[in-house]
Design a protein that fits this description.
By secondary structure, the chain is an alpha+beta fold. It is built from one helix and four strands, in the order ββββα. It starts with 9 loop residues before the first strand and ends in a 7-residue tail after the last helix.
Amino acid sequence: MTRLTLTTWHRSTYSNDSFNACVEVLGTTAGVHVRDSKDLARPGLALSVRAWSAFVASAATDGPASRQL
């Protein structure tokens, strides 16, 4: 597994400026921080590396593309 080690916030490639859907992540040695870039006054979400890895694995296998709408 690749460990996420970023030094700047990175916007999701699935974010869409047209609909104000902007999610950004920042990796640290302690975990991953997630924030809504359109509303920086709100606190972000801090996740452990293990929780982030579980989320990413779940999103990859159970994400919107795999669901019938």
